[in-house]
Amino acid sequence: SVTFSTKERDVQRRDFTINGMLLNPMSAEVIDLVDGLEDIRRGRIKTIGNPVDRFGEDYLRMMRAIRFAAQLDFIIGHEEFDSIKTLADRIQFISAERVREELMKILSATNPSYGIHLLYTSGLLRHILPEVAVTVDVKQSPDYHPEITVYNHLLLTLRSVRVNNPLLRLAALLH
Q1: Do residues 23 and 49 lie in contact, with contact meaning Cβ atoms separated by under 8 Å?
Q2: 8 A C-beta contact, residue 22 and residue 31
Q3: Phi then psi dihedrals of residue 135, to 5 deg
Q4: pTM (2 decimals)?
Q5: Of 9-13, 85-89, 98-102, 151-155, which range is least confident?
Q6: Taking each helix axis from N to C terminus, what angle separates 96-107 and 60-72, rounded to the nearest 10 degrees?
Q7: How many beta carbons lie within 10 A of that of residue 123, not counting itself?
Q8: Nearest-CA neighbor of 127 among 93, 76, 175, 77?
Q9: CA nearest to 99, candidates 67, 142, 137
Q10: Alpha carbon separation from 91 to 39, 96, 100, 119, 123 (Å, rounded)
């Protein structure tokens, strides 16, 4: 059955402020009860309400925050990023299929290397692609690889793939 709600309740169940705005189709007026327009102006990803609660409703939202940051070249709010770090191990409770789909969207983003780096710094990468996470401290010969670590080399390789093909970008990341 369909249950209608108030616009306030509808907005409060959304994940991020940039997704929490409404549009009046009759007047084309944007209804912004959560400062989503300001967060767009500031280039910031923020949750609606408490980040721990919001991510706790669906742990995949942690990856969605990173995907939006990589797609839009935004930053993630401090409270939100700290909450992702705290809850990162909970990504294991999400089905591999859902995680894969979100990872492919990150790899399709405007700046996929930024997305992968956010996955690493948040603690999510070690649960999603542990084979990439362990390369952070693996040194390379500066004679052949001035980027110093395997991880930096992988990010540079990923950045060099200009074609928006997530499978090609995944291959570059895992080469």
Answers
A1: no
A2: yes
A3: -80, -5
A4: 0.93
A5: 9-13
A6: 10
A7: 17
A8: 93
A9: 67
A10: 26, 9, 12, 11, 10
Q: Among residues 122, 59, 64, which one has the least CA distance to residue 95?
A: 59
- The span from the CA of 81 to the CA of 87, in Å, is 10
* Average pLDDT along the chain: 95
> Token digits for 150?
């395997």
Angle at 122 between CA 79 and CA 111, to 5 degrees: 100
DSSP for residue 54: H
Encoded amino acid at 155, one letter: L
Q: What confidence tens digit (pLDDT) does each residue in 75-123 have?
A: 999 999 999 999 999 999 999 999 999 999 999 999 999 999 999 999 9
Residue 76 · residue 67 · CB < 8 Å: no
- Both tokens of 73, joined, read 């070249």
